[in-house]
Amino acid sequence: MASTHYSPEPCTHDGCTEMALTGSDSCWNHVEDQTAYVDGLDKKDISDHWLLGVDLSGKDFNSVDMTGAKLDHANLEGANFSNAKASRCFLAGANLKNSVFTNAYLELTVLGAADLSGANFSEANLERSNLVGTKGHGTIFDKARFYYSRPGTADFSGASFRGANITRAIFRKANLSDANLTDAKGDANFDQANLKGVVK
User: Fold this and answer.
1) Are 90 and 108 in contact (CB under 8 A)?
2) What is the radius of gyration, based on Cα positions, of the chain?
3) DSSP string of 124-176?
4) Which of 77, 125, 154, 188 could form a disulfide with 166 if both were Cys (CB 3.0 to 4.6 A apart)?
């Protein structure tokens, strides 16, 4: 029976304690043909899928529905998720370096401890998202929406927030050194944040 985000089945590999991926009887580490598995995913709908640790690097998922998908510790480096519907998606600890999430809907998404360095989140909706401990060196967040998001302790050195809405975002103890906040809108919480070299 295919796994789902809400009721994943255990991996059938002897001694493995992980859960099987959606549409497979194995976890990512035990999928025999990982390329075939990724190629078999619906590039327009992976909502509620259990995809822990999968390698989607460089793939094109433009406009995909990934609502509720669980992609913790997945490799999405260089992948295209522009215009994605990704509310309540789990991307904790994932590699999103140089990925593209322009105009993506990421409200209530969990990105804690993910690496967003060099990624493009221009005009993305990150309202109420969890960005605690996220790394985003040089990440582009221009005109993104951060209302009530939680980027506490995040490392966004050199990131660009030009024209972003940061109303009530909690940047407590975050590293924003050399970040660009030109025309950023709204009051945010910068308690104990590193604002050295910030451009406003």
Assistant:
1) no
2) 17
3) -B-TT-B-TT-B-TT-B-TT-B-TT-B-TT-B-TT-B-TT-B-TT-B-TT-B-
4) 188
N residues, the chain: 200
For residue 165 the two structure tokens come to 């809405």
- Beta-carbon contacts of 10 under 8 Å, excluding residues fewer than 6 positions away, are 16, 17, 18, 19, 20
Amino acid occupying residue 138:
G
* Neighbouring C-beta atoms of residue 116, cutoff 10 Å: 30
Going 155 to 124 to 111 to 52, the CA torsion angle's sign is negative
- Count the neighbouring beta carbons within 10 Å of the beta carbon of residue 36: 9
Amino acid residing at 170: I
For 181, what's the count of Cα atoms within 13 Å in the CB-facing half-sphere? 23
Please tell me the pTM assigned to this model. Answer: 0.95
Per-residue model confidence as pLDDT tens for the chain (200 residues): 344 445 789 999 999 999 999 999 999 999 999 999 999 999 999 999 999 999 999 999 999 999 999 999 999 999 999 999 999 999 999 999 999 999 999 999 999 999 999 999 999 999 999 999 999 999 999 999 999 999 999 999 999 999 999 999 999 999 999 999 999 999 999 999 999 999 99
**Measured between alpha carbons, how far is 91 from 98 in angstroms, rounded to an integer?**
15
